Amino acid sequence: MQVNSNNSEQLGKTQDLEFIEPITKRYLMVINVRSTRDEKGDRYLDPLWAKDLTEHFRYLKNFTLASPCQQERSPENTIDVEKEPSFADVEFIDLPSPNSYKEAILTLPATVAKLWGAIGKADIVHSCVAGWPIPMGWLVTPIALIQGKFYVLVVESAPWRLEPGKTIKIQHRIIAYVSEIVNRWCVNNANMTIFTQSEYQQSLLTKRKERGHVIHASWIDEENIISEADAAEIWQKKLSPSTQKLKLLFAGRVETSKGVLVLLEAMKILDNKNIAVNLDILGDGTLLSECKTLSSQLQKSVNIRFLGTVAYGKELFRMLQKYHAIVVPSISDEQPRIVYDAYSQAVPVLASNTDGLRDCIQNYKTGVIVNSNDPVALADLIEWSGQNLPQLQSMGKASLQEAHSLTHQEMHRKRWQLLLKMLEQSNK
Predict the structure, then answer these.
(1) Domains in the chain, please, with CATH?
(2) pTM to 2 decimals?
(3) pLDDT tens for residues 390-401?
(4) Region label for 164, one of left (φ > 0), alpha (ψ between -120 and 50) or beta (otherwise)
């Protein structure tokens, strides 16, 4: 989902966790997410990225971040980390910030030199295999191996894989092929790899399976999760005769891979059958204009609204409460985090049967899964949903219970426990 990060309010509001055994070894994270420094030297980060780093600091007490940094005026909707107490003890290593493959190659010697020195000082090295223009894991993995460091990889997405529904140029096929091979090599040479879904583990980790672990990624905090009493009250209103028309939300990038065109085709089918549906689309993207044109062709019972974008936070969560379900018709293998956002508001999910979604939706318990890239199947599911609102309520209640085990803090608690265990085994 495309969101607009707002301000530093999100830092410090996460539930404080007690880590009985913090890790004091020198921990180096090398990642492609950029920071910005202004003319005064102050450093700025995206609020959600800063929030995630803050969770790391709760159990990693000797933390260094190496990432691309660019000089720029104070950007909007960012956090000035110089003013955040949680960042007081963090060391930053600024890497070159290339904006093209050509720049990445030209700055490669400087990047490798900085990484060699930073990795040499660390006890634990953490990186990833996704990132543009060159994933940091491609550079970090051989250096960590040569220097004999304990190496952690996190695989949260696979953007190098070819996007379904698009005409693929030969150079993109070559990049995807090479990326799959190199990333599999990186994963197989890490001491520990955390995957956000099981398909990534199955396809990328071909050796030493015991080193791979699946921990789903989530941004929700415990404070975001509504109470069962609030959920019951909200659903009572949604089931009242005045609001019986099915209300659905699509929240994400308005792109082919997100299944937006599949969703609109399903809406056409429902409109032709005179099935009443209200669909709101929250997000922006390259297909927005085309989607508006297609939606204008609906003449009967289906109504589509385009809501633009909204900041990730309280406004989004309040918005989710209005809907009987969210619809996630993705045709790529990514695992949209909007699923967990919906769970936190007792809202079930109508989704495609993709690797990422199948991994986080319990069919007919927290949502319903149908064939991917199949407008007829999706239309049938939406029609069924409109006729079975009490079942959606039951699935919403079940998804709310699941949400408590899927918070951002719980994700980090699992990572911390796993890291402790793996470090203990490596010392034997």
Answers:
(1) 22-218+408-426 (3.40.50.2000), 222-403 (3.40.50.2000)
(2) 0.89
(3) 999 999 999 999
(4) beta
